[in-house]
Amino acid sequence: MRTLTQWSVTDYQQMQAHGLLDHRRCELINGEIWDMPPEGPLHRFVNDRGAEYLRRLLQGKAKVFEAHPITLTTSEPQPDLRSPIFPIPIISPAILIQKIFTG
Known about the structure:
About 35% of the residues lie in helices and about 10% in strands. By secondary structure, the protein is α+β, with helices and mostly antiparallel strands. It has one domain (about 10-100).
């Protein structure tokens, strides 16, 4: 039987504050600490173009954040992109990818 320790957001933040996670790329997801893979060139390119597109789309309406943690009840993920505006324009992923690559 596999048993996992469920970490709280406070536990996770204390580990960070004490330097226990300094050399790890990880995120707290639903009480579990997940190792995250390093970003590759394609990921970096798509993220950068997506951020540029969303900043143009939301100019004057919302700020677009890149790779900053969000503190939730049982998680502290670091999404590639987020914008604290509701409601946001609904864009299908296919259209967003097309706009990222075509500008």
